[in-house]
Specification:
The chain is α/β, with parallel strands linked by helices. It has 16 helices and 11 strands. It has a 6-stranded parallel beta sheet, sandwiched between helices. The chain has a 3-stranded antiparallel beta sheet with strand order 7-8-9, covered by helices on one side. Strand 1 (about 15-20), helix 1 and strand 2 (about 35-40) form a beta-alpha-beta unit.
């Protein structure tokens, strides 16, 4: 399904996307959402992320993860190990504004599409390389996946700070890939702006380890931010085990009182009169014990009303609060339903329906949206190559 009603601020920009897995496709989907024409160049076997896990995929080339990070793209199959495939890609380079890949340098050079080779075809090309590690360090050229980057960045040591279990564990999300995908999208747009101002293309390097470490440790360097160090790693309010939703009568909410006064208002609305002067609170033996008592009272107060009641009361009392959805509750969240965030659409080639998540960004002059559903392998090869044959 194709919808050309939403052009987006990057309309007219063509991006040759030679990425696979998660980081690169997430970056190019973001750019495609913004209106760029994403020409996804795939090997005959397709992006390796196309293959599903278990029995969830409705077609062999349409895994759930592939579907959610490859909308607003066109799929072109080229065998870059053949002279014909290389010839077609060189012809496409002449039409492109951006060339992005996540291959290792030696691999892309062997195919004849390193930066200098591509620049010789299109001198003002913005050439973006998503790589695991910066080219000037000892890890340069090594393979990289999300778990490896979470490990090297220190992210696997965050859950032990939170729950006291000393075993190193990655955060339960492909968060390094997706974060670095956003950095790649930002870097691409910055380089395009430079080209628009000067006419000059450039080589852009997006190393996962450096960009993700800066992202994840922004708050968690904490006391180690200073030299000499003035404290430990770990931002206190994010690693406390008390940082969790609380139960209501019929669900869960997250409460974030911005002050002691706001916290007291919530506790009093939940039945605790003058909570900070109560024997329960004052008789706690230490500051840490008082914190535990506060959170225990917070949990008890929350159970006195329903989620909807609390949201209304907290809005009236200016206490920041929000429902906490289980994953199987997000589809019925009233905000998502009102905004149409989850949209049922049809996959091409008769593969069936899928649930799309609309882009969250809004532009008043150049609205964005889902113009193209995730492509079947090679479905746009004829259309794209017709103009250069």
């Amino acid at each position: 399904m194709t919808d050309k009603t939403s052009a987006g601020p990057l309309a007219g920009i063509r991006i040759l996307d030679l990425t696979q897995y998660v980081l690169g496709p997430f970056a190019t989907q973001t750019l495609g959402d913004l209106g760029a024409d994403i020409v996804k160049i795939e090997e005959p076997g397709g992006d390796r992320q196309r293959k599903g896990t278990g029995k969830t995929a409705p077609a062999p080339d349409m895994s759930a993860l592939f579907v959610e990070i490859n909308r607003n793209k066109r799929s072109v199959v080229l065998d870059l190990k053949t002279p014909e495939g290389q010839s077609y890609l060189r012809a496409l380079v002449k039409t492109a504004d951006v060339f992005i890949h996540n291959m290792r340098p030696a691999s892309v050079d062997r195919l004849g599409f390193g930066y200098e080779a591509v620049k010789a075809i299109r001198p003002d090309i913005v050439y973006v390389v998503a790589m695991g590690f910066g080219s000037d360090g000892p890890y340069a050229g090594l393979q990289a996946f999300d778990d490896l980057i979470q490990g090297a960045s220190g992210a696997c040591d965050l859950l032990p700070y939170y729950d006291g279990d000393e075993a190193l564990r990655p955060l339960p999300s492909i968060v390094a890939d997706k974060t670095c995908g956003l950095y790649a999208a930002i870097a691409t747009q910055a380089a395009l702006l430079h080209r628009a101002r000067t006419g000059e293309g450039q080589y852009v390097e997006v190393p996962m380890l450096e960009t993700f470490t800066g992202f994840i440790l922004a708050e968690h360097l904490h006391g180690q931010s200073f030299v000499p160090a003035r404290g430990k790693f770990g931002h206190p309010t994010t690693i406390t085990p008390h940082r969790r939703p609380v139960e209501t009568r019929d669900g869960h909410i997250v409460i974030m009182p911005a002050s002691q006064e706001a916290a007291q208002r919530f506790l009093e609305l939940g039945g605790f009169k003058d909570p900070y002067n109560s024997p329960r609170y004052l008789e706690a033996e230490s500051g840490k014990a008082r914190v535990a008592v506060y959170y225990a009272m917070l949990a008890e107060a929350a159970r006195t009303r329903t989620t909807a009641e609390w949201l209304a009361i907290c809005a009236e009392a200016s206490i920041p609060a929000m429902r906490a959805n289980r994953l199987d509750e997000v589809f019925d969240d009233p905000h998502f339903k009102a905004t149409g965030f989850f949209e049922t659409r049809e996959l091409p080639g008769g593969a069936g329906g899928y649930r799309a998540m609309k882009p969250g960004l809004k532009f008043s002059a150049t609205p964005i949206g889902i113009r193209r559903d995730p492509p079947r392998l090679g479905q746009d090869t004829e259309e794209v190559l017709a103009g250069i044959r």
